[in-house]
Design a protein that fits this description.
Number of helices: 23
Radius of gyration: 26 Å
Largest sheet: 2 strands, antiparallel
Strand order of the largest sheet: 1-2
Number of strands: 6
Helix content: 55-70%
Order of helices and strands: HHEEHHHHHHHHHHHHEEEEHHHHHHHHH
Shape: globular
Strand content: under 5%
Amino acid sequence: MAAPTAVAGRNRADARAEAMARLRQRVRLPLVAVPAGGLVGILGSYLYWTLSPVRVEGVPLTGRLADYGIGGVRTWSLLLALAVLVYGALVLRARSRNATQGEALARLGIGLAVLPVVWALTLVMFLDVEVGRLGPGPWVTAAGGLLAWLGARGLLAAEPAPAAEPWARRSMLVDLAVVVVAELVAFGVFLLGIEIDDPGEFLGFFIALTAIAATLSTIGVFKGLAGPFARNEGVAIALLAVLLLLFPFTQEGNTFWIQVTAQAGLFVLAALGLNIVVGSAGLLDLGYVAFFGIGAYVAALTGNALLTNVNFHLPFLLVVFIVAPVVAAIFGVLLGAPTLRLRGDYLAIVTLGFGEIVRITLNNLDPITRGPNGISSIPDPVVGGWSMGEGFTVAGFEISGNSVYFYLLLALIALTLATIYRLNDSRIGRAWVAVREDEVAAAAMGINTTIIKLLAFGAGAWFAGMAGAVNAHLLTQVSPDSYTFPFSVLILAMVVLGGLGNPPGVVLGAIILTFLPEKLREFSDIRFLVFGFALILIMRFRPEGLLPSARRRRELHATGETAAAESQQLFDVRSGT
């Protein structure tokens, strides 16, 4: 009886799926609805969004939203509406159309519809603004986005466009211009996002940026940019370094965002280390925060802190580059040794337990760590008689102490990336990938999986210890409560969001997950709700990450025939045929 029941259940599920597919096919409008939706969105962006000036719990709503005009969050809805109008008109006039264009238009329409709805729901549900105080602007704008989305759906059934390819070289000058303009635009967008103080407007900015980036990715712009950047890699890296060095000068004495950027650098270092363990070797580590904490406590105990019980001082550079990383790496190997036979969920549970053991030990080792009170008053590092916290002056420009930490972390990140790329191209890096793909096959090919796993744990802990040592001096204190399980989850989210196994993606993920909660700090009660919701959407629609490695992209987007062929090849290898 079980088999017929299962078959009947599958038949009912297939029937429901077909009915939903037919319904989706009917829910669409002619393509002319796309530019019409853009016009409606422009109208909604010009209308008033509130009936009276609103200020909730000190959270300002900038842009004079109670009047007709453009400003505040309406700026970003107008930008999306213009993109829908222009691109929709271009597609409408094109002689041939494809499903890729429909998908790009649909993403723009969704962004235009979601932006005002999220803004309105945030005010109504979490800031206690009455619905009656909202004007017609957000609802008209959302209607325009919905109209554009329904019009774009008619193209989804068309033939897809050919796969995007990197842009071919036209001339060296054009290639260099493309690289320079792309990096300057990205840097300008980053500075613009920092300058937006209104959290409601920042939500609109973030949604608009996400929709535009998704659209550009759909039509192959990012894939095309890979060509000029690959051909001018040295120029791209040099220009990026110059822009990063100039970043503190753009803040005009406001050191807060410089400190946040330095904190992002710490997370970048830690995430790059975890990427070795999780992304390269495929070992799920949920206790990674332990190595970060060990490095921080080593720096605190040897950093001449006033309240420590250990009167032992070592030079800062020696601690950052050798002592803290080595101690953390030793503990990484000690963690890896008993877990060599564990995989998947069992390995995750053991590493989680190790992280808790380290935290509890730090909490109870009062004679050395001062227990729950932690170690405070950690002084700024002194190098050659100069204190990093004092900063310095260059050509009349004041470089603050936070800027010095920022530059130090830039140097450490550059050194870490160079080391990781060399490791990935070495026999050790290839062995990590082999163990991640199939440990049995790797062992059969002569790879010593025991040593390779221990090296992965040790290398990941090394960079975490380095980041923890700098973090202790940057925050001037350490305590066991700072190194809990959510910290490990956050770093893992950075790796997964950016792209497992791809260092540039990991860097991007760490930057986003550092700045996004800070920009939503005004919404203290809901910022992690928005933060988590954004992560869910990204993982749903782009599970490989924002900048995935080529291997992971192929794995998650392989067609049925490709996946079946790879599975058959793996079966043939394991069966010895």
